[in-house]
Amino acid sequence: MIQPDKIDLAYIIDDDPTTIELVKLNNERFGFCDTLESFTDPHAAVDALDKALVSKSALPQMILLDINMPVMDAWDFLDKMNERLYDANISVFILSSSINPKDMEKSMLYTSVLKYVMKPLGLDKIATILGLIKKSGRLGNFYN
Question: pTM here?
Fold first, then answer.
C-alpha cells in the first residue's frame, strides 16, 4: 500500500477500457487514491468538473489523461480545463503510449501537467506521480 500521501479523488480519462481497468486494478492493489473516477469520453469529464465547481464539491487532485482520443484529445481537454480555472490544485499526468517528442514537449506547455508518463502505469510510476504531487503542494483540495 502507498500511504500516507494518498489522493482523495483522481480521474482517469482514456478511451481505452483496458487502460482504465489496469489503473483501477493498480489502485486496488497499491491504494494510491480513495476514489478513482473513470471517463472514456473527455466531454463527460469536463461536465463532471463543471458540476464539482458549481456545487463546490471536491475537484480531483490528479488526472491521468490519455493524449489520443477520438472526440476530444488531451490538448483540447487541457484547454477547456484551463478556461475554467480547474488547474488551481489539479495535477495532470499525461498517460500515453506515444513516444512522439512533440507530444512530450507540448505537454510541458501546460502548467497543470506535472509529467508525461508512459503506459502502462505500475508501482514505480505511481510512486513517482505521488512524489511529484506532494512536491508541488497540490495535495490539498481546491476549496480548502
Answer: 0.90
* Predicted local confidence at residue 93, as pLDDT: 97
Average pLDDT over residues 118-129: 90
What separation in angstroms does the CA of 88 have from each of 103, 105, 109, 142? 23, 22, 16, 7
- Given phi > 0 = left and psi -120 to 50 = alpha, else beta, which region is 3? beta
CATH pick for 7-136 out of 3.40.190.10, 3.30.70.100, 3.40.50.2300, 3.30.310.50: 3.40.50.2300
What band does 100 get if pLDDT is binned at 50, 70 and 90? Answer: very high
48, 40 in Cβ contact below 8 A? Answer: no
- Name beta bridge partners: 64: 12, 93
